[in-house]
User: Fold these one by one.
Assistant:
Number 1:
Amino acid sequence: MNPVFQEDLEHILQADFIPWERLSGKNILVTGGTGLIGFHLICSLLYADRKLGLGIHILAPVRDREKAEWMYRKAGAEENLRFLVGSVEELPSIPGAVDYIVHGAGITDSKKMVSHPAETIWTTVQGTRTMLEVAKEKGTARMVFLSSMEVYGNQQSEKPLGEEADVCLAPGNLRDCYPISKALAESLCLSYGKEYGVAASCLRLSQTLGCLEQREKKKERKIIQEILDDIREGTDIRLLTKGESKRTYLYIRDAITAILAVLLDQGNPGIFNAANEDSYSSVYELCEMAAHEVAKDRIRVLVEGRELPQYPKTNFLNLSSAKLRQIGWKPSVPLKNMLERMLEWGDES
């Protein structure tokens, strides 16, 4: 096993605010299992099961069984993990109990959000409704919907954003189809709680950084992947935009502990931000830090300053995690170390 991955799994297991015993003998439904967050969550659950003997059973709906089996080939899943082929929009019937649900499936590619806005909305909203219907039918103890910091929209103040802050979204801007669909799905979760007694919480995740092994290299790489490649290859970082938007970040293992903290919390369901507040920086500042502190000034940052429709307009998403900290959660990895761990992961793969 990759040593960085191993260390992350052990850190998650040892987090003192996760009451693992509440998962003993439970059936857990996880969507989005072939994505970054879903994969790390399922592997963390399997790791905890092996170490603690919890008797967890995981059901993961996937569109591509072959891809899923390849991804989990080293996870030691055996009988603890079962794949269910189908889309979250039209999920086949689920036999047996479902004690907990983590719903993370959805479209995350920025270009697809612009080229397929209707599909983006439908996947999020109908997929969430499907999961809520499962939770309603099965009497699920708690569901967590993985939302996004983008729900806050076009914020022009740099004041910390709590969960009660007003969102600033524009239906006329098709790129906002993604955060609008997330906001609607959040409302759906809370509405199912009010009308049907479904205990569903929403977790607004900051931009989450981590590594995921892929069979094929993606044609469209996110900016973090490009920064890491530039550091490895010793080439200058080229920013297509001015990189003025500022946001908080979150390392993958801290995202997983946030999910588990909310999933196993026995307080009232609600909306929670998940962010490492100390990571708040602009895209340009992130690139400068990577070039100077991680690459040790071997590379530079070059700015083209274009405006591209697939990216949100310049905004400031300074998320506060005060509410999440109240239930015991805390982040563990600073921004610089996020990049260093991802580099180490790639070098060890």
Number 2:
Amino acid sequence: MKNLHKIFVLFVLLMSATTIMFAGNPDRQGEAGAAELLLNPWAKSAGLHGMSTASISGVESMRFNVAGLGRIDGKELNISNTRLFEGSAVKLNALGYAQKMGNSAFGISLMAVDFGDIPVTTVDQPDGTGATFSPSFLNLGIGYSYTYENKISVGILFRTISESTPDVSAFGFALDAGVQYVSGEQDNFRLGISLRNIGSPMKFNGQGLSFQGDNPDGNVPYLLTFDQRSEDFELPSVLNIGISYDFHFNDKLFLRTVGNFTSNAFSRDQIGAGAELYFNDMFILRGGYKKDFGSSGSSLNNVYSGVSAGASIELPFNDSGKNKIAIDYAYRATNPFRGTHNFSVRMLF
């Protein structure tokens, strides 16, 4: 009963946060920083536009609903590469590990943004100095989930955020929390709620914000070093509410349908739906559609408004069938650019 009471309290707190999150509107778009927190490096969930708040499990749950961390049977290792916004030359690389221990589960995930080599330019050399640099954007998340009687899961995740160039950097922390509820004779119905990217403001510091200028007292000519103060910026907080329902046709074939609402504190809210077709626990096809609230065609729309699609192949590599290797692929339409491609390799053991 004590565990049920704690779960109920957390559920109420997450629901109460809805009133805060709905305060967001598109007029605030661009005011938040650390936008990489909204990027999804994992292919399985990307095929559904990240709308699997209610059904997501394992390593990928640490991106959307950490309550699903314990919805695995043993251990999971996930390695992923993403060609972000095809044509931009930006990539995402991610590595995650999750392990279930009784009713609890622990996980760790790391994501890095690869911007490639950017030419160094100056006022005197606008065409480049011949040198290059690459910003370093890293996210490290450590998550914990507890499952009560296989029906209710709760989870919390602590994430560090690091953004830096050779002479400027910013560092911050964020918390995610989530709840999943499963019901039905075959666990057909699922409900999920997650609150993400709740943390303190971040601020850039470093020598790159300093410059040399003339002494204000013109009577004594010499140079002084001036330090510029950067403005604080908020994290892009997000509330997700999702449901899913499974239709079992036979022992080898079932269809999972999902619906999801996303409230963005610094951009338009989004709603969408999708489906996954599972065959023989080996082949999975998925697709989804997400739409922004508000007038279509607006320049304030999110970049991911439209269709997504993906597929997975899960093959056992031992006689028991419990140990599997899976390959996931996903494509998401973007505006602008030519879409995003996600590739992941998972090992379940």
Number 3:
Amino acid sequence: MLPTPSVPPMKHRLKLLLRRWLSVVCHALGLRGLFRGSRHGVPVIMFHNVGYPKETDYLPGHMKVSERKLRRLLRLVRRAGYRTLTVGQMVEAFERGEQPQDAVVLTFDDGYRDNHDVLLPLLEEAEATATIFVQTGPMKGHLNWLHHYFWVLHHMGPVRVAEMLAEHVERPHVRRDLRSLPADPVKAEYELKRLLKYEIVPEERDRLLEQIFVEAGGDERALAESVYLGPDECRALDAKGIEIGAHTVNHLILSTVDATKQRLEIEGSLRDLESWLGHSVKSFAYPYGRVWDYDDDTLEILKDLGFQSAITAMPGTNDASTPRLELRRLAMCEDSSMAEVMCELDGVFGWFARRGVDLRV
């Protein structure tokens, strides 16, 4: 199960309000720059999809950022005097004993086709770079359960999907929870995803979602080919200086499978990418990326395979003291406040956190 939040809901809401108010004031009045001298660590921003191609209509909004918003961010980053690095370049700087105060890292997870078709021109226009973490299963025509889930959710809604799952799942308490989702659609989607990730046996979950997907008219191979990068696009991105990192074969929650399966997932994606690119791949991103989504076996496998870095989805910045296999980053999507993002980059929230007022989310 997901850990129970330790912060009371009201306190969390007040924290978000204070964070937003502070970011608006600092951004509007030009006060962000006052914090840059004390900025600690390199911020890494996490994205997924870029733009709104019709092929990805079924994916949720929190995975998307528009061309307009990303172009604006790239302009603000450049205007503020920051340069962009790949994850690999950031780690290499740390290994040389450097602490880049003028650097920002952009990362894009999963390996969507829009990262080539839409993102690449934006990066070239801004003279920027990025790291794209690619799961390789879709290049072979296989989608993981999460895409089956998003697709059927888009076409049916959470209540109908939950009802269909409840007819077949084995665990009584899961059937009960599936049939008593919250009335609020956003909360219902969150709870349904939580049940799928952590409460339903993975093999059972995958089988049932694929069955619902197919019965609803889904075509796995066609969808995978239209939504994900292929080897040619990966090579084209690589040739432009965009780092390609590994992200497993099937985007499994690594902590839920044994060490043998973990190695197959991690090494499989590594070998796929190396065969497509013709050179070694040294950066990795954990699927889902929370600390409970990987374990000690994962870390040992990454070390054994020679990865120089691995990145989580835990908030924070990175410096030479940050464990190379547990780097941190900040999520951004279309709904993210640009003022908050720029305050993160300039170290505003880090400055307050070091003084006992943690406004990080």
Number 4:
Amino acid sequence: MAQIGVIGSGSWGIALASLLYHQGNQVTVWSAIKEEIEELNRTRRLRTLPDLRLPEDMIFTADLAQAMEDKELLVLAVPSIYVRQTAAKMRPFCRDGQVLVNVAKGIEDSSLKTLSAVIKEELPMADAAVLSGPSHAEEVSRGLPTTCVAGAGNRKTAEFIQEQFMSPVFRVYTSPDVLGIEIGGALKNVIALAAGIADGLGYGDNTKAALITRGIYEITRLGIAMGGKRETFGGLSGIGDLIVTCASMHSRNRRAGILIGRGYSMKEAMDEVQMVVEGVYSARAGLALAEKYQVPVPIIAEVNKVLFEGKPARAAVNDLMLRDRTEESAGGWSGE
């Protein structure tokens, strides 16, 4: 049995806390919002996961020291926009070599840093890793079969995380490509916004297939330019996560995109979804990274225009379709 602290009491944090508890671990969950902790202690339920009953001996606390001290593993499960400030709060209680796995997906808008880079700046003493893949909290909390990938700088850390999370319904692979895992996890949310916009406009399966296929192409080209491995983008944290996020109504990014396609503004869509829509924050960062590495990303660029420049969604799709003609595979023609 391991002592595990889950930092963040949203849907994903609670779903993973439940998974880890049922693996025989002692789990403590922290939230900065005292009212959330009081409700969890009182009801043993999270409103966004109403079918999940939380164990009586799972600990919920607003005391960060209690959640972190003497823990063999910390799971950082706050939205990407809160990762830096939360990591800074964690610094006084973080010991040298503390294994910490981040499960949020995003890129810091102001610095264009991946979340693991942000964590290393704020918690240089920690052994930081990531967990990502096609994994909606709603399904993990119900025990539906799910696969993810644990990325870390060394094999021992990745395999330790694999061991803690692995179960008959939650299969974990390992990878050294932390950067590639994070780029795939962040930018798939931007493509999911585009897929949702297409749904909101009333487009069909052909359109969605095109967005997923060309979307992973954009993500892969940019990820490789940044130093990620090609095989990562064909794996769970790349095409796997992209498919599920573009296709499922559990996806807050797709739901926000649907509303935008129906005429909502970006702010109105985010207010309606009532949860953090990570793709909105990653869209601008993704475009800035593409410009930095000189990689064309037409879908991500059009999503930015719709979100931040008021471009009509239908016009964005039309401009994507009418771009200059090009080829999918270069060279190899007979006679060349």
